[in-house]
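Z., the sequence and structure:
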Amino acid sequence: MKPLLPLEIKREKKKKFEELYSRDTVWFKNEIKEKIAEASEGERGEKTRIINEALEEYFKKRGR
């Protein structure tokens, strides 16, 4: 049997995708778009992950 938790302890509500991400329109070179598509292997959310990781690394290198 699980111990009862005090009422003060509340679970944090999981944030919705739209609360964590914003949509924008950008233009990619065709060869870059193809590479992203190949790397994502059609898995849901992989393009977003790849692009976010690349941009985080870009800004990290520039100290921003």
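Helices lie at 17-20, 30-40, 46-61. The mean pLDDT is 89.

Let me know what you think.
H.
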